[in-house]
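worker-03 picked up job from queue 'complexes'. Input manifest follows; three sequence lines, order preserved.
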Amino acid sequence: MSGLANALRRHPELMVAAVLVIAVLAIGTINPVFWQPSNLFSLLRASVITGILALAVLLVMLSGGIDVSFPAFAIAAMYLTVKAMIAWQFDGVLLPFLMASSIGLALGLVNAVFVHYLRMIPLIVTLGTGTAVRGFILGVVGTSQINIDQMPPLLIAFARGEFFSVTQADGSQAGLSSMVLVYAGLAIAVHLILRHTMLGRGIYALGGGEEAARRVGFNTRRITFVIYGLAGALAGFAGLLHGAMIWTANPRDMVGLELDVIAAVVLGGASIFGGRGTVIGTMLGVLTLVVITNSLIILGVDTTWQRVVVGAIVIAATAVTAWRDRKRIA
Amino acid sequence: MSTLLQRLRGSDTNLLQLVILTVLIFAGMAALNPERFLRPYVFESITFIAPELGLLAIAMMVAMLTGGIDLSVIGIANLSCILAGLFFHSVGAPRGPELVNMPLPLVLAGIGIALATGVIAGAINGLLVAKMRVTPILATIGTGQIFTGICLVLTGGPAVVGFPAIWGQFGNGTVFGIAAPLVVFVVVAGLVWFVLSRTAFGINLTLIGTNPRAAVFAGLRTQRTVFLSYVMTGALASVAGILLSGRTNAAKSDYGVSYLLQAVLIAVLAGTNPAGGRGSVPGIALALVALMLLSSGLQIMRFSNFLVDLIWGGFLLLSIALAALRMRSR
Amino acid sequence: MTAPLIELRHLGKSFGAVHALKDVSLTIGRGEIHCLAGENGSGKSTLIKVISGVNQPDRGEILIDGEKIENMSPRQAIARGVQVIYQDFSLFPNLSVAENLALSTELQAGKKLVSWRRVRQIAEEATRKLGVALELDALVETLPTAGKQLVAIARALMSDPRLLIMDEPTTALTGREVEALFRVVRDIQSRGIAVLFVSHKMREMLEISERITVIRSGEVVASGDIGDFDEARITRAMTGQELASEGYRWEGDPTAPALLDVQGLTVPGQLDDITFALKPGEIVGVSGLLGSGRTELALALFGMKRGYAGEIRLSGRPLRLDGVQAAIAEGIAYVPEDRLTEGLFLAATIDRNMLATSHDRLSRFGVMQNGQAARESEEMIREMAIATPTGNRPVTQLSGGNAQRVVIGRWLMNDPKLLILNGPTVGVDVGSKAGIHRKIRELARARGLGVLMISDDLPELVDNCNRILVLHRGRLVAELEAEATSEADLSTRLGALQ
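worker-03 finished. Artifact:
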């Protein structure tokens, strides 16, 4: 076994960190506009939603599953919550986010029931729940977009908050969104759960071997429910935050986003076979993906290339992971 | 006679259940709206729309036979007909009689381009899965992005509108009063059924899906066979693309996106084991008929497309639950 | 006199119509190394599950410290000091050694949070208890099998067991690693912990155990002090087979050119300069301890060791065996070691299994000739005397012996010149075993097939082969005429290799 494969196995985030550094240096050299604080801040802001969703996908992948239902859950949580706020004429921040997370949690538990009790491949389960939930929102709840004039003002105000700003060379102000802090807080929370609780270690153990986890005494059913429940709650939270950040609640939003998020998580070194992956790697993966795809314009590349770039990143990352894990599977 | 009984009792109980399901759906829809459902037009329109989906479902089943999946089928289908469409527009004219009345040899060349696209795209998937051992889910998510991305790059987003009349015949013409797409479907499905059940390749493919390790010890060419199965999947997807673009007289990067779930659903409902080793073309045909009856019935009852999506997703989950119960009772 | 640690009285356990345990009584004293011997399918695994509380017996009693225990659960069994180390070790490959060692202790203590300092302390304590050094930060998947086993043992010792059950612990170990394992086991014993060794490897049982119980078809067929047993007696008890003394006489022409001629076959780290020849109709046995290179020799001849050096000739023609297909094309057939995972397609029919290697041959322009295929399969079912009315049945309905006949028959359809059998009768019941042996000899004699038979079962080799090769650490160390060799000789010879 080569030393590089081993190093990658122990520290999956090494690869993505290297890719990120190379990407940043290359883009920054080609077009120095990249280094402007406003650009850097907007990249960080752009990674918030993808990042929170990636944390959800990381949890599922660590247990050896895959989830494609989360964009639908996020949209369902966002749209239902905003609709409810308008209907009840309620404005606020904390309760709506609680509601959105709860909706996501409930939907996530549905996934867990199918995965745990019916022993079905998570991809197919989540394909089903995702489509059904999206169909429910658009077919039963409504198809109309809720625009800025109807959106609850406090929610918008919350998402507009900036905690740091600098004066750029041309005298304009560039501010960093406070939502970056929200994302960081959630990431730290997930990291602490994974690293420092028995539950978190149980998630890794489940990904390492379900039968072995059961024999050691882990409650695999509870762990599965926590994984999918937490992933759903994170998706619900991200959905509402997304709506607040773009000032609209569009039930047709986030279509196809699952591919970007999965790409980011895989790029961050997580293995689809479970048991391997870290929060820091995932965050780096998200940042790398956001930096590359959002820099196409300043690189003078047509944005229609974005899909191709994301696809190429997925394939490159999985090919490296397959090479790393080849010994183990063979 | 005894073998027939055995087949009914044995692996084909699933077929029997599908027949019952189809009859039940038919009876249910007929009872709910006798005057609108029991009209020739309803069934005729099914014979035009169902084939493209049926081919995608067969493609999905072929990938699932070895425990894989192909999430790039929609991308392959769209790319195939976009390339053919662009070919027609460049050799003929972007529009007008010169395009519509394009002579047969050129149309055949276009069909060749579409099929070659499917074969090459499938070969890329096969290379990634069989030779580089990338997990099928991630490999085909990645290539699907790239194929869709190339569509976007080539068209810039809008649809390629206008195909030669002969090409259109495949999508909406008739042969002796029977829908041409149905004829194509029956011929292609028959061919796949023959290949899977009567040729050494097909039988070996199923054996590899049953136990890849034993297949190696039995001297089966596992890599080559799996590779070819993805080529076949790609070719089937491109035929579906030809039918889709022929019917709608257009090709676009995001056509048929909802077909992905439906193809998976039909494959699973047809008794295909996503873990490999089991799947049949007659099952796909029956599941296709059942679900097309269901969705036309729902549309007649003025269910929106979104609600139909909800029901498709729910049906997928239901079929998973039923499959799980069947396994348990065994 | 104090009560024994654990006493099983007339245990019985059935799964549907299958009587896995019929009547098993067994007593294990404190600090005793006890061996439970039996072939695959004899009921060993069920017995382990009953002792560890995973399965409840239908009849009989379990007494621990003289106290009768009703409806013992796994948790109760652990509380009473019973720990099982499964064959697959049940470790987490993706986690560090330290974490693997500490997780169960922390779980038992009902901890909710992980303190990495405590994990480290627990792991250090565990390795201290075992008395071996383990690299605590290494990921378990990077350890060799023996290392994984030590982690599993260290983990089991953390709960202060009084009885450690080890299921086939030597299966994947090399001779030297087995030695190291035995030192650890003796050390465990010296602390008053009893060890129940579950194995079908006789030599190792003789070396380590104090007492032995042999079960066959769910019943105890022999038990007593190890001193009263020798390898032959254990084998006879396990298989129920009296030694057939006829042996296999090769009546071919000694001056005939060799069918298989292997010169200096070397696979780095696995095989070292192996040279031997085999004439048509010969049945040559291959014996050796685990890790001796016996399976590797078979795989090299079957084209699965691409990087080999040396020359392999078949019927005088030099071969380049760089793939399974190349080997098959030359007429080499291989019946693998593990029938269930390597030999059979369990979800398929008998016919499909039988024809697995013949589909290409039986097709014209890629299309299967179904009529011919069915005829050939039916013929082979008859020739191999497989007990089934039709080849259309699932292969899972066959007994071990009949299933093995399918795997052998599969190769005979290709008319091979050389048949390599790895453990041809593992998990096959006695009656069926003799039938398979008869068939193999008949094939060698009548068809002039060369047979290479790898086996752990010494009587099987002595009875069926005309020559026996002994491998050790990848080298060919002896070549014996079977006629002049008794099972006891072979056993002593192998014992000396340790």
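worker-03 released lock.
The interface with chain C takes residues 1, 6, 9-10, 195-201, 204-205, 207-209, 211-213, 215-218, 274-276, 328 of chain A (CB under 8 Å).
The longest strand of chain A covers residues 162-167.
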